[in-house]
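We read letters as residues; the integers encode the fold. Take this protein.
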Amino acid sequence: MTALDLTRARWRTSSRSVGNGNCVEVAAAAGRVAVRDSKDRGGPVLAFPPSAWRAFVTGIDAVRPD
């Protein structure tokens, strides 16, 4: 497994975060979508192919109450 270089990643708070302190940050890096906990910026990062991230967000939209 190769480590993902996140030194130049431009993190942003996800638009799906609701502002209650339970937020995630996302960044595009090396053809992946990286995700981390906004409260633990030095902690672990999950990385997904863009197609998997789109499927995840689409799934959230499908079950998200209006």
User: Anything to note?
Assistant: Residues 50-63 form the longest helix (14 residues).
